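URGENT: need a sanity check before tomorrow's submission.

F., can you look over the HECT domain-containing protein record below? I want to be sure the sequence and structure line up before it goes out.
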Amino acid sequence: MMGLQEGPLFEGPSGRLLLTYDLAALEAKMYHKAGVLIGWSLAHGGPGPRCLHPALFQLMCSQNPFLGDFSWNDVTSTEVQSRLQQLRSCTDVSSLSPSLRDWVLSCGICLKQSDEIPAIYSSVVKHYIYHRVASMIFQFKDGLNSCGGLWDVIQRRWEMFVPVMTGVPQHPLTRPEFQQLFTVCYSPSEGSLRTAEEATVGHWETALEEVRGGRADFSLEDLLTFITAADRLPPLGLPTLIPLRFYSQEESEPRGRLPYASAHPPELFLPRGVAAAADLLVLLSRAVHEAQG
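Structure tokens as predicted:
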């Protein structure tokens, strides 16, 4: 994904990239290939680009973002930066210089004396980052959609894909969200094993609340990485719930065997009958940090 971001198809500051106007790349269907690459990654549970400008992504999803505060520094063209600065400094249409007026008209925006500068500014920004590169955007989305109609899914659920497609960070996992990823695999029969497993599950829930509340030296995201080898959930969700299984501690291990995981497919193993949530938290901390190296 990093190579794609640094290629000729995108421009702008990191995490706020815009599509370039590159006719040679368009003729070579490079934007389509970029969409296919991203779509293939997402369809297989991999990362998204996490680099598109949030405003551009919303426009691509047929949303209407507020563009009045769009930073001209997100544009690489020094000429366009200068024009946007000049436009922002004007008080009304009558204060536009002839050259600035001509430039706004060249963006396909008809000026009326009653127009307000913020509205004109937003229209110019929308033209530059969206309408001007409409062919590139269409090809890029078509590439994504070639992966099982993925773009249609993204457009319908665009808010879910914001941290996947743009530089906007994903909100931290909550304890209920994390807990819902698992299915508990209890011993089939009633007895001491089942009782010990139920005690562990109770301590597990308490431990997760401690982690989410910042009262541990690792995060839920760290724990997710320990279990799945991924630092965030796939935007389409996990294909199946993660089995939560149990093991018995051996007397030959005085410090206790650490919780362990299998990433392919994901499984988590916790000790039966751990004495308290604090004890389980210590074991999880050791396991997570040892896995991190």
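My own read: The mean pLDDT is 91. Residues 1 and 49 are 6 Å apart (CA to CA). If you see anything odd, call me.
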